[in-house]
Amino acid sequence: MSLFDQDRSSERIPVSVITGYLGSGKTTLLNRLLRHPGMGDSAVIINEFGEVPLDHHLVEAVAGEIAVMASGCVCCTMRSDLAETLRGLLARRDAGEIPPFRRVLIETTGLADPAPVVQLLLNNPMLNRFVRLDAIATTVDAVHGTAQLDEEPEPAKQAAIADRLLLTKTDLANTNEIVRLRERLRGLNPGARLHTVLHGEIDPEKLFGAGLFDPAGKPPDVRAWINEPAYDGAAGSHQHHHADGVHDARVRAFCLSFDVPLEWGALSEWLARLRRWHGEHLLRVKGILNLAGEAAPVAIHGVHHVFHPPVQLRAWPDADRRSRIVFITRDLGRAALEESLREAMPALAKGG
Hints:
This protein is α/β, with parallel strands linked by helices. It folds into 2 domains: 5-207, P-loop containing nucleotide triphosphate hydrolases (Rossmann fold, 3-Layer(aba) Sandwich); 239-344, CobW-like, C-terminal domain (Hypothetical Protein Yjia, Chain: A,domain 2, 2-Layer Sandwich). It has helices spanning 26-35, 82-94, 115-122, 145-151, 153-160, 175-188, 222-226, 234-239, 246-250, 264-278, 334-344; strands at 5-6, 13-20, 42-46, 58-62, 66-69, 74-77, 103-107, 131-141, 164-168, 193-197, 251-258, 282-289, 298-303, 306-312, 323-330. Helix 4 crosses helix 5.
């Protein structure tokens, strides 16, 4: 019998996080999404209704904090902490007070570090039975994005941890600047999908489905979730040697792979030490593991000190049985991680 919990994602609601720096287009994006017929089975949590012009789309208000849009989408103001807001939405849905919804979107403030929101979704015992993290989408202003990356630490982190990078206002920006900004974003986060979004218009489905776990019962898309080829050569070509900004240079993105099955005891102790001593430097970690004694792969996923409990998938989706772990870090390089891993697991060959 396996030591790990089985994937129960079909029983949990996917939650996506929309983040991005001030003025990067989150409000415009949300306004468009809320009008989209395909969002009728969604709930959106925003900071204040007043920040998003919704009044003429309102159908009814529920208890002052919740509105039901013309599309059927439920829109909720976050007046308390996020966990309480999510639990309240689920309770009202189950009681029939608001329409049913199958997904949730959370908008963070422009100055917010999205990590606490992601950590809540990864490992909160009161929520994990009901919701799961799906996608982190980050809006980036094509006009001011370069200056923001140069001057502030938050935009670099918001871009680095994203599953989806949404480049906005490209109709107002210089073509050369757009090319340069796209290269910087690729350097910060080579594994994310990058979409151009004009005036908030994007197919909602492009924002979703970034999580490893598929509630439809299909084999997990390990290749897309890890996206290993995107990291080949990325760590040295962009972050370390360009002169585009000190915040970019602090961020590293790389993938370690291992051909032989790993011993969970030694690996989990190494990961625990990483979280304990370098948690602030671990912007995001996700991996698919081939563990000795386990017939099916085990997935790990964490942000900073907080990791989701390891989950065993139903089966390997293809013939590739290598363990692969993606690290997006700040002020923590690949060489240091590999050295500490060799110390923890001396028999392990160097990660490739």
